[in-house]
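Thread amino acids onto this structure.
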């Protein structure tokens, strides 16, 4: 993710998780042809990608985490706030010219 944000890799890292039920996978068939395929998108990974790609359109204070263990939720929210502050401070730094 950091390499993508710095422009060192052209594509963002994948964060989706695909699960296949009832069949062997991976095999020659594409996942769209499987009987039961589930795509899991971890909210934390999506938020980080949006934050570092500049697509985050809301405040880090409004992250809607719903985690059953309150201590874990509090720690994760604090970590997201720290990451958001780091991202904001990085955005203020002069960017090197390409080339």
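Threaded sequence (99 positions):
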């Amino acid at each position: 993710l950091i390499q993508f944000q710095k422009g060192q890799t052209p594509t963002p890292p994948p964060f989706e998780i695909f699960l296949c039920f009832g069949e062997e996978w991976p095999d020659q068939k594409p996942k769209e042809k499987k009987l039961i395929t589930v795509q899991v998108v971890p909210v934390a990974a999506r938020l980080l990608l949006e934050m570092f790609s500049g697509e985050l359109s809301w405040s880090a204070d409004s992250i809607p985490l719903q985690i059953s263990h309150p201590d874990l939720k509090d720690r994760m929210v604090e970590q997201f706030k720290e990451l958001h502050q780091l991202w904001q401070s990085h955005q203020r730094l002069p960017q090197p010219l390409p080339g």
